[in-house]
Structure formats: structure tokens, C-alpha cells
Amino acid sequence: MKRKIRMGMVGGGPGSFIGGVHRAAARLDGQIELVCGAFSQDPAKSKAMAAELFLPKARCYDNYAQMFARERALPAGERMDFVTIATPNVTHFPIAMQALDCGFHVVCDKPITFSLAEARKLRDKVRKTRLLFCLTHNYSAYPMIRQAKALIAKGKLGKVRKIVAEYDLGWLAAANAGKQAVWRVDPKRSGVSACVGDIGTHAEHLIEFVTGLKITEVCADLSTFVIGRSLDDDGTVMLRFNNGARGFIAVSEVASGEENQFKIRIYGSEGSLEWHQMNPENLIYRSNTQAMRIYRRSWAEQEPGIAALTRLPAGHPEGFIEAFANIYTNFAKAVDARLERKAFKPDYPTVDEGVREMAFVETVVKNSRGSRKWSKLPA
Ligand code: NAI
After folding, report:
1. Of 62, 236, 284, 305, which residue is 20 to 30 A from 166 by alpha carbon distance?
2. Which of 10, 17, 45, 98 has most ligand 1 atoms within 8 Å of CB, for mutation?
3. Please, how many CA atoms are within 13 Å of residue 143, restricted to the half-sphere of its CB?
4. pLDDT of the residue at 177
């Protein structure tokens, strides 16, 4: 790399949740620098954030339209290379479309858009502009998730038969759960689903990523437990896969006391794997013929490429930020390859996975509201 890759940011203003994670993850390996931002829809808050981050006043913008226009007018050696979008769901589409129209690569948080129709339009735009688009499904970049993917691909589990993913949170158990909760349960800002859109998408993405299988049909039962909410805060979705496997996703944001209890189990004809987000350095392998074993980050028997995803010696815990950083660092390499006109195979979730997740969300919601037992996911 000849220079750092320059990042701009929309969202991630004072008091926001994931914006700070994006910034920390982007700078972890020293290959990306934040150069500008429109951190809030309120210009005063955006300025306060920029001051906290020691950004020059001239690179703090009142809104994203102003940021894209002014950055585009800067000399090539100064302007941002890509923008990160860390705003509520309803705004992802207009911001991403405008960024691409102005010639900037995009990193966008999940769910990719408000609707499937928007996700498809965004995919068309990415294809047309040939710019890079990264969707931050960060769980797919944990070393032990990559280990699981590699083991499954080489047949360690035999034929995959059953997949179970659960994601339980307690933070929406009460009606008044704070600022971040307000937009998440508002259909005008969140989308057709709160819980499935927010965390079911992580489960759907991780299942398809790890197994390489595709969900073909769903049978869903979504619920709204907190009175006054119009979107789901809990749900169970049975799944059918393209190889005949079965499974389910169980998600809840009203599971009182749970933190980020995200786990996945994959059962094959020869063995099974289990991974827990809250204990991410362990990957448990079981079979009917051998003693249970635990693969650990930084120990022997790693599959190729896993070592490059870790930074600390064994026993010094790594986790959420590092997995997020793996996505950013790979994206930075992709941007660099573009600058150098070199070929590069992206190793991060793309707009195609975004279309899949929105197809999943909309099919699940429709199925849960209707009387059909099973609904097919649109192509
Ligand atoms: P938040 O409500 O904490 O922060 C949103 C930020 O965006 C605020 O600073 C707000 O002022 C700003 N904003 C809103 N509209 C804007 C606009 N038009 N221009 C500039 N700034 C604007 O939300 P949170 O929890 O940080 O979520 C943001 C996004 O990240 C959501 O799409 C969410 O689904 C996703 N997310 C992803 C996670 C992951 O693990 N990958 C975890 C948490 C959130």
C-alpha cells in the first residue's frame, strides 16, 4: 500500500452506538484514516463529533449531500476514498446511492436498506458504477467462524443436515429502552421488521456464509410482546436449505437479561460444530466416534488464512472489534488494488448478500402474517 486509505463517515454522531466501533475497527491496522464526516443530521452535533475526533473544521460537513459534493471537488490526493454509513436503516439507500453517484466506494451497515426493492436498485447501481460495496456483517470475520467455514467446505461434518442459529438480547424488554430503541421499533425508520431486521439478518447471513448453503423456504412465527409496538420484537423462523438440510433461527430482543447471546450450531452426517459470539475464540467440534474437541484461535490445526485474521498471542482475548477490523482491512486492500489497478478478490460481505438479507426479512414477515405454511425466498 502506498498510502493510507481515506475514510469519510455519515452517522456515528455523539451518543450513537456503532459509529465508534466502525472508527476503531477501521484504524486498528493503521491502513485507514478518517478524513471527514457528516456525523449527525444536526450540524451542531456533527461539529461536536468532528472536534472530538480532531478533524479539521473544513472537513466536517452539515449533511451528506454537502460532504459528497465538496469531497468530490477536492484534489484526488486529498479527497476521501470511501464513505462508511452508520445511520438508521431508512437512510442507508439514499446515502449509498448518492455516494456511488459521486464516485465513492461504500461501507454500509446492515440491514443494507429499508426494503428488498431498494436493495435490488442498490445492487444495480453498484454493478453499473463498478465501485466497491461492503456490508458490515462483522460476525463473518471472526477467525473461528472462518475456521468453521473451511472445515465444513472440506467435508469435516459430512453432509450438513441441520443448522440452528439463536440470537437473544434483552434490551427491548421494556417499552422505553433508550434512544437507539426508538428508531428500531419505528416502521418508518427501521423497515418491515424490528427484531428480524436487526439481528435475524446477522443469523441469516452467518448461516449462509459458514455453510455455503442457501435458505430456500421459511416458515415464521413473529411476535410483538411489548404493548404499543407495531413491529416484531421476537421471532422463530424454520428454514429449508438448497441441499435438503433443515434448521431454524430463533431471535429475541425481549429475552430479559441476555446480552448478545448469538450462537450457531451446524450438524452434519459425520460431526457438528458450535460457536458462541460471547466466547468467540472457541469452536467446538463433536462427533459420535471421537472425544469432543475445541479449536482455539492461535493454536495448531488452523485452516489456511486464519492466522492472518488474528493479531494477539494466544490467551490475550480478541473479539468484536478485531472481527470488524478484519472486514475493514480487507476492504482497504480492495480499495488499494483499485487505486493500483490490480486484481483483488474481495473477502467481505457485498451488496449481493444485502439483497439476500432483505429477501429473507420480507419473506419472513409476509409468511408470519399470512396463512401459508412455507414461503419461498425470491431469487
Ligand atoms: P444510533 O441511533 O446509535 O446512531 C445513528 C447515528 O446516525 C446518530 O449519530 C444520528 O445522529 C446519525 N444520523 C441519522 N441520520 C443521519 C443523517 N441523515 N446524516 C448523518 N447522520 C445521521 O444507531 P446505531 O445503533 O449506531 O445503528 C446504526 C446502523 O448500524 C443501523 O443500521 C444498525 O442496524 C447498524 N448496526 C450494526 C451493528 C453490527 O453489529 N454490525 C450493531 C449496531 C447497529
Report:
1. 305
2. 17
3. 27
4. 84
What is the structure's pLDDT at 341? 96
Distance 110 CA to ligand 1 centre (A): 10
3-class DSSP string for the chain: CCCCEEEEEEECCCCCCHHHHHHHHHHCCCCEEEEEEECCCCHHHHHHHHHHCCCCHHHECCCHHHHHHHHHHCCCCCCCCEEEEECCHHHHHHHHHHHHHCCCEEEECCCCCCCHHHHHHHHHHHHHHCCCEEECCHHHHCHHHHHHHHHHHCCCCCCEEEEEEEEECCCCCCCCCCHHHHHHCCCCCCCCCCHHHHHHHHHHHHHHHHHCCCEEEEEEEEECCCCCCCCCCEEEEEEEECCCCEEEEEEECCCCCCCCEEEEEEEECCCEEEEECCCCCEEEEECCCCCCEEEECCCCCCCCCCHHHCCCCCCCCCCHHHHHHHHHHHHHHHHHHHHCCCCCCCCCCCHHHHHHHHHHHHHHHHHHHCCCCCEECCC
Q: Is residue 206 part of a domain?
A: yes
Decide if 379 is inside a domain: no
> Is the CB of 222 within 6 Å of ligand 1?
no
**What is the extent of the structural domain holding 189?**
143-314+357-369
Cβ(109) to ligand 1 under 6 A? yes
Say if ligand 1 is within 6 A of residue 201 CB: no
Is residue 30 domain-shared with residue 173, that is, in the same domain? no
Check whether residue 158 and residue 295 sit in a common domain. Answer: yes
Residues 309 and 276 in one domain: yes
Question: Considering its fold, how many domains does the chain have in total?
Answer: 2
Query: Is residue 98 lining ligand 1, measured as CB closer than 6 Å?
Result: no
Tell me: do 90 and 117 sit in the same domain.
yes
CA distance 260 to 367: 26
CATH code of the domain containing 18: 3.40.50.720
List, for the chain, all residue ranges whose pLDDT scores fall below the cut of 50: none
Q: Tell me, what's the pLDDT at 136?
A: 98
Confirm whether 375 is domain-assigned: no
Q: What integer pLDDT is reported at residue 180 of this predicted model?
A: 86
Same domain, 226 and 149: yes
